[in-house]
Amino acid sequence: MKKLINDPSTVTQEAVEGFVAAHEDIVVQLDGLVVARKGGAVQGKVGLVSGGGSGHEPLHAGFVGVGMLDAAVPGAMFTSPTPDPILVATKAADGGAGVLHIVKNYTGDVLNFETAAELADAEDIEVATVVVNDDVAVEDSLYTAGRRGVAGTVLVEKIAGVAAERGDDLQAVLAVAQKVNAQVRSMGVALTACTVPHAGKPSFDLAEDEIEIGIGIHGEPGRRRIPLASADEITDLLLDPVVEDLGLSGGENVLLLVNGMGGTPASELSIVYRHARKQLEARGVTVARSLVGNYVTSLEMQGASVTVLVLDDELTALYDAPVRTAALRWEL
Amino acid sequence: MSAATLDVAWARRFVTLATETVVEHRVELSELDREIGDGDHGENLARGFTAVAAAVDGSSAETVGGVLKLVATTLMSTVGGAAGPLYGTAFLRAAKVSDAPEIDAEGVHTLLDAGLEGIVARGKANVGDKTMVDAWTPAVAAAQSSAASGASPAEVLRAAADAAQQGAVDTDPLVALKGRASYLGERSVGHRDPGAASSALLLDAAARAAQA
Lengths: 332, 212
Description:
The complex is a heterodimer.
Chain A: H1 11-22, E1 27-29, E2 35-37, E3 47-54, E4 65-66, E5 71-77, H2 83-93, E6 99-104, H3 107-122, E7 127-132, H4 152-165, H5 170-183, E8 184-190, E9 210-213, E10 224-227, H6 231-246, E11 253-260, H7 266-282, E12 286-293, E13 303-311, H8 313-320, E14 323-325, E15 329-330
Parallel strand pairs in A: 3-5, 3-6, 6-7, 11-12
Antiparallel strand pairs in A: 1-2, 2-5, 4-14, 8-9, 8-13, 9-10, 11-13, 14-15
Helix pairs in contact in A: 2-3, 4-5, 6-7
Chain B: E1 6-7, H1 8-24, H2 26-36, H3 41-57, H4 64-78, H5 83-96, E2 102-103, H6 105-123, H7 133-148, H8 153-169, H9 194-211
Antiparallel strand pairs in B: 1-2
Helix pairs in contact in B: 1-3, 1-4, 1-9, 2-3, 2-9, 3-4, 4-5, 5-6, 6-7, 6-8, 7-8, 7-9, 8-9
């Protein structure tokens, strides 16, 4: 294992400290490594809190700021945070209008956020929860823990964040978040495994000429293993199930997000984007908005995911609205 | 000869032995988790129980339930992942039914049953889903019949621990239906569930603590 770290046991803490110092104009650090908006909760605004295991940076701390999250809770590497810091973040985000928890559908995240919501309720903070499950690789049935929350989470945070910013109440912000979740689908691929610092060896074994289709964002194995193929062929394997699951028949406006898993060059992400866009257009789908880059990563894993969000006027307007976070920022 | 009841000294010995066994098996548990999960189960439990040992050492808890409650809250605030809330809830429910200076053989069964109910309530797993429930369910059944036959608390715990170990072994051929291993479907066959394995270790620590 070759990593630019000091000590496996202090990676998360030192990374958060460095992140907060680098973005001191936007965020502050609270107890339990919680990263919150500088200036505290906005009175009368619904607060947005997300969190999860570390190792997916810039998710979630990179999305704290105006137009997105009020607070983020980084857990240990690839491990959900415990209820205590989630409660710290919930309190920090509460401006009196309630707090929305944005939770990726992983068993640990769901259980810890559930417990934190109970603790918040005991302190008279109203909490609503949206569980993001945009990953089409996992069959959603009684026989699995359900679809995982992956790159689509960023779009839920962005769009719900603006809904909160414009003054929607908690139920309305929740409804927007649920709408995004209902209309977004993703699928990912790993070319290599990643190495969790304290584990010291790759999370799974993948031969030189093998790729894993349908990975989640924790380095956990996915749907199946196949021999390495061309970028266009792999892009088809990711895009086709997404298009099929959304039932795209032509005429839709969509947002196309090509997300890097951490170790993929920007040029390769562009190659994936190029083909995905062509394929969507060939089906009569208009790619109205695009996002290409490393947003939800798996440490140094080589790989990518393709996400499609079906847009309407409301979602497009909310997506276009200004955002000012460490990892995503634009003006009107 | 074994005592007719267990007291707070047993609960404290349990914490010591549980911490030792979790730290000792840290790599093994993480390796099981690496095969069908994300490879951090041993690390997370070792971090949690190390904190538990320190918390219990520094506390003046005088009942079994008092110690178990401290175990619960410490695990919930230090472990994270799925194991934190699952074990946390198990110990919390167990603490609620054991808030007494001494517990007898039937009390041990009641305590284990409450723990299992907590795990099921939180994780919503069924028997055969390849989770810690598959270790706890036979353990509770063994504890029940052992207590009904007039065994001592130490014997009840030994029966439960042995059944849990067999239950963990029996998860090997199962297809995971809950938790992160469920994403693997058929590919989870042939691997032992890490949560069932750690549950067996913890129940074994509880049994050894009763023999001391």
